[in-house]
Structure formats: structure tokens, C-alpha cells
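C-alpha cells in:
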């Protein structure tokens, strides 16, 4: 797709808001991401915009919305980052307490090595304790 055709394609499908976001008005996924077609290949609109302006997205990187608006395709709001960093920046990263009300403090929080998600130590200890009560034969050897 040449740059003029791409510019027209995107221009027809975005609306700019006062926050600087370029909101996708075309087809959307169930998760709220825009869908576009570039050279007959379907992709998300923010990835399509990033690709058109900066080229291939390096293997292992994802495109993050710095504005946290999944419909935004403004190139200045997009950044290529690792999956781990994307998880850390996600909506859960701004939570101050776990779902059971324990505060995420330095002493009460650890990160899973496998995917970088936060885990509440208090909840983890409680799960371990309940597991021993429900399955005593495993721990009494």
C-alpha cells in the first residue's frame, strides 16, 4: 500500500479528540481494538499505523497505547515494547490492592518470572494454607 493510499484509508476512519487521540471509527474487535487491512492482510489498526510509519515491528515486541485508549492510532501515542513491559504498564499495574483487599506493598508483592504479573503474598500464603487443609495426605508424608 503506498503512503498516499494508506493516509487516505486511515484519514477516512479516524476522528481526532481533544486528548490528542486519533480514534478508529472502522471495524472493531470484541476487545475494543480497531481492525484494518493493509495489502489485504488484516491486523489491528494501531499495529497497522505503526507498521506504515516505522516499518516491521521487531520480533518479541508489542505496540502499547501510551494513552491507554485501545482505539487510538495516533503514532505519538504508540510505542513498541516487550510483553513483560506491556503487562507491567497495564491497568492492573495501577491497582493499589489485590482483589481481596491486601495492599500491594514491597513486602507483600512479588512478580511471576514466567509472565511478570504481580502476586499478593498474603493471598498466596492463604491459598497454600487452604491447600494443605483440603489435601492433608499430600503434606503428611
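Residues out:
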Amino acid at each position: 500500500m503506498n503512503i498516499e493510499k494508506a493516509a487516505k484509508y486511515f484519514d477516512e476512519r479516524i476522528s481526532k479528540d481533544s486528548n490528542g487521540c486519533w480514534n478508529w471509527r472502522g471495524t472493531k474487535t470484541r476487545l475494543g481494538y480497531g481492525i484494518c487491512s493493509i495489502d489485504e492482510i488484516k491486523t489491528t489498526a494501531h499495529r497497522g499505523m505503526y507498521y506504515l510509519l516505522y516499518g516491521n515491528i521487531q520480533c518479541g515486541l508489542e505496540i502499547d497505547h501510551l494513552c491507554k485508549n485501545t482505539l487510538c492510532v495516533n503514532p505519538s501515542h504508540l510505542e513498541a515494547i516487550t510483553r513483560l513491559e506491556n503487562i507491567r504498564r497495564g491497568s492492573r499495574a495501577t491497582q493499589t490492592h489485590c482483589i481481596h483487599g491486601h495492599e500491594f506493598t514491597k513486602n507483600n508483592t512479588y512478580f511471576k518470572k514466567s509472565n511478570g504479573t504481580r502476586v499478593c503474598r498474603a493471598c498466596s500464603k492463604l491459598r497454600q494454607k487452604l491447600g494443605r487443609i483440603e489435601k492433608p495426605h499430600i503434606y503428611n508424608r
